[in-house]
Specification:
Blueprint lengths: L10 H11 L7 H8 L5 E5 L4 H13 L7 E7 L6 H14 L4 E5 L8 H19 L1 E5 L4 H12 L5 H4 L5 E4 L2 E4 L7 H10 L16 H16 L4 H30 E2 L2 E2 L1 H4 L4 H6 L1
Parallel strand pairs: 1-2, 1-4, 2-3, 4-6
Antiparallel strand pairs: 5-6, 7-8
Helix pairs in contact: 1-3, 6-9, 6-10
């Protein structure tokens, strides 16, 4: 028997109360700037029906009433669980209550379920739809815990600043700006604010599965680190991510200068390149 609960009918009122609890001053300033400057094209909002993306959808809707006629809700159904179709239904019903257009992507049953394959199918859908609908901005609901998980995940792979400063608050995929305004807010606070406004969301039980590395990091490593450190771990991680992004941007700037100076047609002048620091030489 299904325990499905539909979204509340008063989503507009809930979204406005959420905005009162989490005004734009609490969002990441780079993502907020990207959203504010999004003066042309449509705005896609990725929503799984989970707490974080539901939070993102309702806050964007409340904060930018002048952009509602350009908002579009995206949902990708990986079709891995019995309840996947109920997640899809929940998102569709939210979009209808908010009077926003929506589009659903769906995997075939028995498709590969490793993390890389899941991510590729989801991104193919998002970027394909973004091109079709001419999105200028795509909003994702990543939070502060996601930043910490990603850093721990990529440390194990030996990543440099380019990998460790992800997920960025705003970055470009071609002409599409991907904005993540809520990487300044931790997972627990997001759920507390939703509960305070009587907003429900969908729980994905696969997030508890030890099959996926990110889940193991979340449930084991990150929770243990939060207990072990003598300060606010997530605030420190956020600060480190911002600093790494500054350094990555600097390396990109100097790499561009080095390439202009050292590359001629199909060859690299190694004598000129040798004058640069190792990080620049490696990137070139």
């Amino acid at each position: 028997m299904s325990n499905y609960l539909p979204p509340p009918d008063d989503l507009l009122a809930i979204s406005e109360r959420l905005l009162g609890l989490c005004p734009p001053g609490n969002w990441h300033k780079h993502a907020l700037a990207a959203l504010t400057e999004s003066s042309c094209g449509s705005i896609g909002i990725a929503c799984s029906g989970g707490a974080d993306s539901t939070f993102a959808l309702l806050l964007i809707y409340a904060a930018f009433p002048d952009l509602r006629d350009r908002m579009f809700v995206l949902h990708y159904n990986h079709n891995l669980r019995v309840n996947s179709c109920e997640d899809e239904r929940f998102v569709v019903e939210m979009a209808k209550i908010l009077d926003l257009p929506h589009e659903i992507g769906k995997s075939e049953k028995d498709s590969r379920s490793d993390e890389g394959s899941l991510r590729k199918r989801r991104l193919d859908f998002i970027f394909g739809l973004s091109a079709k609908r001419k999105f200028s901005c795509l909003v994702q609901g990543h939070n502060q815990d996601d930043v910490a998980e990603t850093i721990l995940w990529r440390l194990s792979r030996g990543s440099g600043p380019q990998g460790l400063c992800s997920p960025r608050p705003a970055h470009y995929h071609g002409s599409l700006c991907i904005a993540r305004p809520y990487i300044t807010i931790d997972r627990t606070k997001i759920r507390a604010m939703l509960a305070e406004t009587n907003m429900i969301w969908r729980e994905d039980e696969s997030n508890d599965s030890p099959e996926y590395l990110r889940n193991r990091i979340r449930k084991n490593s990150l929770d243990q680190l939060k207990e072990d450190v003598d300060r606010d771990l997530l605030s420190g991680v956020s600060r480190s991510r911002d600093l790494l992004e500054e350094q990555e941007d600097a390396i990109d700037e100097w790499t561009g200068r080095a390439m202009n100076k050292c590359i001629c047609e199909d060859s690299i002048d190694l004598r000129l390149l040798s004058e640069y620091p190792l990080a620049i030489k490696r990137r070139v």
